[in-house]
Write a structure and sequence with these properties.
The structure is a single chain. By secondary structure, the chain is an alpha/beta fold. It has 12 helices and 14 strands. The protein has a 6-stranded parallel beta sheet, covered by helices on one side. Strand 8, helix 9 and strand 9 form a beta-alpha-beta unit. The N and C termini lie far apart (92 Å).
């Protein structure tokens, strides 16, 4: 017969403590167990073989080289874009380089269709050295609590947290958007609009800030439009009504439908209307054109986020630079050219 599995009760008997004390040690609650008692429990764990449990091994060594990955949306969607794949490729490659294992948390409570990092989900983070967070529907209150007394973590994507020094690795959307605006300006455009869903997401606000800064530096007027609830035809009507010759799209997945609506109005892209996408879409665009814009360094963001997390785990101090923005790759593409000689798209010559 195979040898009986060592239990927490066995460890408790060997250490001369209660099973509850063993549980406190395993759950990394040092404030509730004295140093001498904790050491006896760790020694009993090692002697008994209970250290084969990954959590016990981590306590014996101080680290278990296991990194958690928590996503606010499903990693493997049934349909739609593969948002997480490039990040996960980068995370996996860096984890291999660091000699770390990855643990994907999938049992989180779902509230209003969104995963939440609280209660049992947060408690389970203790079995890792730290955690990477990804997604668009994070709860800032949860992040604040995690920052106060949770394990080390890094957000993949820039996140603002009032009053909190939240570590992140993001893309420099402000600079990238400014570079795209300057492409339009170099081609002679003066009336360039910005279209995006005007919410509080940092990724959207950074793109908008980059647009505003570049346009004001060139002493050009800004034209900002909320895409939420607007049809492609309505968007084209805004372009014509505001006499725009160029348009920046914060939501790149709508590029082709807007181009089609413009064509139905008699406007060719880029001959009559230049357009650019601010970040590659999750689903490749079905288009004969190479779109102007920039590519988000998603793989590098994943890799750098894990590298930063390992630094935070090893130092446990704030000496490490906790905020990192990576440059985006500008793509000249084919959808931005000189504006038409006529006064406005669809207008009189």
């Amino acid at each position: 017969m195979p040898p009986a599995r060592v239990t927490q009760a066995d460890v408790a008997r060997m250490a001369g403590v209660s099973q509850a004390t063993v549980s406190l040690v395993l759950n990394a609650e040092p404030d509730r167990v004295g140093p001498a008692t904790r050491q006896r429990v760790l020694e009993a764990i090692g002697e008994s073989g209970y250290a084969a449990n990954p959590v016990a091994q981590s306590l014996a060594r101080g680290r278990n080289s296991m990194i958690g990955v928590f996503t606010y949306e499903p990693v493997f969607p049934h349909g739609g874009g593969d948002f997480y794949r490039p990040f996960l490729i980068g995370i996996e490659a860096e984890a291999e380089r660091q000699g770390s294992d990855l643990l994907l948390f999938t049992s989180a409570e779902v509230v209003d269709g969104k995963r939440r990092l609280s209660g049992r989900s947060r408690a389970r983070l203790v079995i890792t050295d730290g955690c990477l967070l990804l997604g668009r529907t994070e709860d800032k209150g949860e992040l604040a609590h995690l920052l106060e007394d949770g394990p080390p973590f890094v957000f993949v994507g820039r996140r603002r947290l009032p009053g909190g020094d939240l570590p992140y690795v993001g893309a420099d959307y402000i600079r990238a958007t400014g570079d795209v605006v300057r492409l339009f300006l170099e081609h002679g455009h003066e009336r360039i609009g910005f279209l995006g869903e005007m919410d509080a997401r940092e990724s959207l606000r950074d793109r908008l800030d980059g647009y505003r800064v570049a346009m004001r530096a060139a002493e050009m007027p800004t034209s900002e439009f909320d895409a939420a609830g607007r049809t492609p035809d309505e968007i084209v009507e805004l372009v014509v009504g505001n006499r725009l010759t160029g348009l920046l799209l914060a939501e790149s997945h709508r590029a082709e439908e807007i181009r089609s609506a413009a064509a139905a109005r008699g406007l060719d892209v880029p001959r009559d209307l230049s357009m650019a996408v601010l970040g590659q879409p999750e689903i490749p665009l079905d288009t004969p054109l190479a779109w102007t814009g920039f590519r988000i360094p998603r793989e590098e963001m994943g890799a750098q986020a894990l590298a930063l997390l390992v630094e935070l785990i090893e130092t446990r101090t704030k000496q490490t630079e906790r905020h990192r923005l990576l440059p985006c790759l500008i793509e000249a593409g084919e959808t931005v050219t000189a504006p038409p000689a006529r006064s406005a798209p669809g207008g009189d010559t």
